[in-house]
C-alpha cells in the first residue's frame, strides 16, 4: 500500500522528484516508462491542463499491471475539489504550489502525503504546524540554497524539497543538498518541451541517468 510514510521514504531515498504534464496520454505513459527504466521509482504528474485527470486515471491503471512499485503523485493541486478528484482515481500523494489548509486536512484524513508549496517563513510555519511531511520550496530559483540554509534551523525535523529552476549540474545540486534539503524537484530541466514534443525517450533516459548520478554524488 502506498502510505504517507512509504511515499515520503520513496522521495527521500531517491533524492529527486521528476514532474511533468503532457496532454497526450500515451506520450505521458511512455515518459513514465522511460523514467522507470532509468531508475525512477517516484514521480509527480502535474494538474496543468484539461487532460490531466483522464490522463492520470490511465496512468494509474497502467501501474496496476506494470511498474507496480512506482509511486505516482499529482501536483498543482489548489482546491479540495481537485484533490478529491485525483484521490478518487488513485493518486499516491498530493503536491500543491500553495498552502491550502482544507486540502491539507483532506489529504491527512486519507492517510496520504501532503506536499504544500511555500515561499515565506510564515507559509512554512503554517504548513509545518499542519504536519506537512514534506514542504516544497517554490519557486526555488528565486529563493536559492542560501534561503534554505537560513530558515532550516527554525523548523527542526521538517523536510524540504526545492522545485523550480534546479539545474542538472553538480554544483547546483550539491549546493541544494548542502543547504539541508532531502531531495530536489526536477521539471522542465529534465523533461523538456522538446523531449515531450519530439518523443525523444533516449535523451530523457540519458538525462535521467545523469541526474540520478549527480544526486548521489551531491548528497
Percent of residues in helices comes to 40-55%
Estimate the strand proportion: 15-25%
Quick check: average pLDDT?
Answer: 97
- What is the CA-based Rg, rounded? 16 Å
Large-scale geometry: globular
How far is the first residue's CA from the last residue's CA? 28 Å
Oligomer: single chain
Biggest sheet record: 4 strands, parallel
Quick one: how many beta strands? 9
Helix and strand sequence? HEHEHEHEHEEHEHEHEHH
| Strand order within the widest beta sheet | 3-2-1-9
Content-based structural category: alpha/beta
pLDDT < 50 stretches: none
Q: Which characteristics define this entry?
A:
three-stranded parallel beta sheet, 10 helices, globular, alpha/beta, four-stranded parallel beta sheet, 219 residues
